């Protein structure tokens, strides 16, 4: 990781100084040891602050929606999971591929204040579905053998009422800050139905527990078949709600029913087979 | 100063609603105390205590449809007495700030009702509760919290000192042994010392106030500071002093329920008007939040900042952008 | 503010017996927005409609709810009545209190409250209705038929007959297609050419038909009534106006190595060629890949011998663009490649042939002048084995062949067997089959004649292997009925190869946004009710491109497609259904989810500038072609932002119905 | 029936596609095949028009069961609509079940225009199943209670 990080930073600078790219999207140090803040570097002097290490958890892919509308190419340092998210955004025409230079950065799992990030315990894999060049090494290619559906299976084993109580108590912590939605690379709507007074379902606060359920059910459904399981929703939640469970349940089901999907291909929910099973 | 075992305090729940920091589904928040509740006094609550007086959502009135007739029914003003225990010095100070907003005319009926119905038992900190704490920066003494009564916990024993009549009244309901006020001085000194060592304790507010409004507003740093901001409301909703709200209508099928709910100046639809949004970029929205806390509010409130250094936003922001960074960037000799 | 009128129909006693109609009307009077409510014996009667019209005028109603029978019965009636009253017809909603209420409930105690609930829902919906106006689009009075086989020819002839102009685009130098390659046709055994060539001539001579042979469709834009099609006319290097088809050049051409497509490659043809004697147009074409002059610049003999001076080595492809109101796909079929069926030794032995090759061998104009001889040594065969279902009815996991039945093989195999036995009684003919399928007029009689009168030996069973052994073809197969293994030393083996759509069809389907099934056959708009229409409005299907067919079926479908085309072209303007999808461009993300679920290709994307909350932005936005959209609503759910909505069944309308129904609880 | 005062009457919202199931309901009616009045039908052009938001809306507003009826797979008037509906609802229903919502409160049924008898049967069956479950409390919204 150490050397990979150095190579990534060196290469990013090289591409910037060569004029290949106009700006660099990466991270900078935050106030605390574990904090790395997404940062955009546009001058040589700023670029000195560029950092890449085991704390660069945040998914930068969504930033590129805005950046790819700017003049010139933007270099983005993307981890494998971030690249998967970008792949989705590319397929959905949210990001202009020509405007992005993807520097794939090997990753051995990212850490936060409380150690290894939950999303990294069951990593989806270390390959880059889309990139201009990738820098990694043996260590970075090792995939942890955690079963990402273990928690889903555990909950499936509970009784209906147990499951209801579990999710009701988790979702009742929701403060509707929209961090999960705003950070989600699949939630790229210009205006969310829940922000749109004309949608008939808009709501700013959950005045009734139903609205907690509705918001998260509908969000999970809207990203169904598109979710890249980057785990940012759960990482971002200030209330520690395991939101990724809803997405993973759907991913698991789609896998069992329709043979799975990889964001970047056609979403199984906008596809069908005459031989599909019944609801 | 009264000394008693913690459990004694919980007995008042038999007579009055008691709210305390309770751990539920892995998160500590102020909640209604019930026998068996998992009270946690070591952790800073995830959300601030402001919800007890200014809930995230509360009904204002109902427009009830009776056939074609409409009856307007105002929502009942909350008046059942309650005790709020375990508020830290930072949150305790936030009430004073909210009071300036809601009580200094026009008076907010609902907020006022809850304030007078509630008795605040603030709890002195044994030291910073998180690396993100920085209340001393705003002149708050973590060991001497403001409230109707002050409380400290030492070796499982609860020490209580009444600060107001409400506090007196509460203490009368509790029986414990009188002890000397100085009994805890050592512990308090120790707590202050620990806090002084906290990483953010050295934040320097020089140059951040109502007098430097334009310099602050025009500072070039905002661009970089706000770059990573998601425009979510995490910081706002955990903040003890953010007090913006929206008023909305909900169609119940048999009428319209008009309620108010927290809003966030970080949201892209905040104060959205027919012509569009007064603050169109996230930079402007981001700047607004911190200008309000560090410049606009003090400008209108005798120099009092609308931040109490609880550090929740520092810990909660998924992108790690927060007021501490803003103060570091703009404060000190900078301007 | 809307003013709604509610009319409760008794339907004689049909409704009134189990629903207190007066009570329903009364309940509606206290519904928000309702300014008038009444009940009447028969709302659908002229008197009833007059009452509706009068009330609309008198109370200046903006919307109307009829509580009566199913909208499938009288929605149109009441919409027209409302229109007569000067109200937008789409401001009418029906509460179905007969089929869904009075007829299924025993007494008023149950019927009346439910009727009220249904009426409430209809009121709630109409309050959210918006006036809708059907759009109109002009119709280009010309049809395009893609494919010049019997299907395309028949469709074109019928359309032309009805008085409309039609173009046939055919990729090969001549029309005629597969049927032109056939010797005889089952079950009548009449000569294929004799019945086809007159039609080819007719097509060529029809003033309404233009043949664009040796041409291909390159691009299709537009929609029903208004297609714009780009067609590439490939260079023949021969001026078709001058060429007389004398074939002098063909005789003299020194390059004779080109495989003769018409004879399925059983013999060669010259570089400049006329596919077959009755080809239409009867002009020569130079195969650039074979022509010495075009490859090396030398030669030029054809130019010298052409008395008409028709040869033009500098000819270039010509690209033309035309507007059409309707398009017919008639791209036909081909036999599958047998490379994966090594067990039949097709690659190893020239004496193992496909049925279509055998057809050419039997044909008097074929490579053997109609003499039945072995391709390998020209000797007369004494033992011929026919193998059916080669590549048809394969299991999915076989990894080769098709799962479907090619339909025509049983019959043409019987035909071939019969023809052989008729001409050469000395030849022993055996047919290996899984099942013999002969549904069709006189088909089974035909098959039985082959077996019973002509002595064709049918063996129920599969052939495991065919291999060459001292001049013979050893055929190893099983006879299931006699439960024995057969080892037959044959002189020739004829394989009934499965048929598949022409490979070009897939690309064409994409251009036409017409969907295809997993076998690349064009899908029909409805498997039972709209078999000759594609789901894409204005695109029709003719012949085997939609599925395996024999000639009579093909001709029948070709005619059916033609009448659909004529029906469309006979209109001057198309009135579009106003209940179509619509995209709110401020909400659209340009993610294309809607585009992907649209069965009609009605949704297109373009970069447009929008002003969102005062901010200018250029975005990729969806737009719905109202002439093409049929209003299913698939896109509205695929769209996460709610930008896509459906007029007449809008989100807000349906939610209002839900709310109203639940309010009744 | 109406004798028993405090008997639980479930509220069931049925979304029926215009071409098959709604016609099937009409046939049930014209054949005088009875099913509980608790079932209220909403006409949609196609089962693929049914947005999960509508289903949640119904539950929020007090529905105890929601059923979606469409043409049999392969018979969709729009050729593919019910295929999409089938996948969407499969995924949605499994998610709801995962979150502890009773699976029997939601259902998809294919009913053709000729299957009046099936329509009545399905509605009787579904109404019975929902009634057995009792009132929907898990997805209700207290503000919408009368």
Structure description:
The complex is a heterotetramer of chains A (279), B (335), C (665) and D (146). With 279 residues, chain A is of the alpha/beta class. Chain A folds into two domains: 2-141, no CATH class; 150-270, no CATH class. Helix content of chain A is 37%, strand content 11%. In chain A, the strands form two sheets. In chain A, strands 2-1-3-4-7 form a five-stranded mixed β-sheet. Chain A has a two-stranded antiparallel sheet with strand order 5-6. In chain A, strand 1 and strand 2 form a beta hairpin. Chain A is globular, with a radius of gyration of 19 Å. The termini of chain A are far apart. The mean pLDDT of chain A is 93. Chain B has 335 residues and is of the alpha+beta class. Chain B is built from eleven helices and twelve strands. Chain B has helices at 6-10, 89-102, 109-117, 165-173, 185-197, 213-218, 221-226, 234-238, 282-300, 312-316, 323-330, and strands at 2-5, 17-24, 27-32, 57-66, 69-74, 82-87, 118-123, 149-154, 157-162, 177-178, 245-251, 255-262. In chain B, strands 3-2-6-7-8-9-1-10 form an eight-stranded mixed β-sheet. Chain B is globular. In chain B, 45% of the residues are buried. Chain C is built from 19 helices and 34 strands. Chain C is elongated and about 95 Å long. Chain C folds into five domains: 4-132, Rossmann fold (3-Layer(aba) Sandwich); 142-233 and 317-332 and 509-569, 3-Layer(bba) Sandwich (FAD/NAD(P)-binding domain), CATH 3.50.50; 248-305, no CATH class; 336-500, 3-Layer(bba) Sandwich (FAD/NAD(P)-binding domain), CATH 3.50.50.60; 581-647, Alpha-Beta Plaits, CATH 3.30.70.3270. The mean pLDDT of chain C is 95. Chain C has 665 residues and is an alpha/beta fold. In chain C, 53% of the residues are buried. Chain D has helices spanning 21-30, 52-60, 81-98, 116-133, and strands at residues 12-17, 39-44, 65-70, 106-110. In chain D, strands 2-1-3-4 form a four-stranded parallel β-sheet, with helices on both faces. In chain D, strand 3, helix 3 (81-98) and strand 4 form a beta-alpha-beta unit. In chain D, helix 1 (21-30) packs across helix 4. Chain D is globular and about 40 Å long. The mean pLDDT of chain D is 93.
Topology, please?
The complex is a heterotetramer of chains A (279), B (335), C (665) and D (146).
Chain B: E1 2-5, H1 6-10, E2 17-24, E3 27-32, E4 57-66, E5 69-74, E6 82-87, H2 89-102, H3 109-117, E7 118-123, E8 149-154, E9 157-162, H4 165-173, E10 177-178, H5 185-197, H6 213-218, H7 221-226, H8 234-238, E11 245-251, E12 255-262, H9 282-300, H10 312-316, H11 323-330
Parallel strand pairs in B: 2-6, 6-7, 7-8
Antiparallel strand pairs in B: 1-9, 1-10, 2-3, 4-5, 4-12, 8-9, 11-12
Chain C: E1 4-9, H1 13-16, H2 21-29, E2 34-40, H3 46-58, E3 63-68, H4 71-84, E4 92-96, H5 98-102, H6 108-128, E5 136-138, E6 142-146, H7 150-161, E7 165-170, E8 184-185, E9 190-191, H8 192-205, E10 209-213, E11 215-223, E12 226-233, H9 248-252, E13 258-259, E14 268-269, E15 272-273, E16 285-286, H10 292-296, H11 301-305, E17 318-324, E18 326-329, E19 333-335, E20 352-354, H12 355-362, E21 383-390, H13 409-423, E22 428-433, H14 443-453, E23 457-460, E24 463-469, E25 472-479, E26 484-490, E27 492-497, E28 499-501, H15 504-512, E29 539-541, H16 551-569, E30 573-575, E31 581-583, H17 593-597, E32 603-612, E33 615-624, H18 634-638, E34 644-646, H19 651-663
Parallel strand pairs in C: 1-2, 1-3, 3-4, 6-7, 6-18, 7-10, 18-29, 20-27, 21-22, 21-27, 22-23
Antiparallel strand pairs in C: 5-30, 8-9, 11-12, 12-17, 13-14, 15-16, 19-28, 24-25, 25-26, 31-34, 32-33
Helix pairs in contact in C: 2-6, 3-4, 6-19, 7-8, 7-16, 13-14
Chain D: E1 12-17, H1 21-30, E2 39-44, H2 52-60, E3 65-70, H3 81-98, E4 106-110, H4 116-133
Helix pairs in contact in D: 1-4
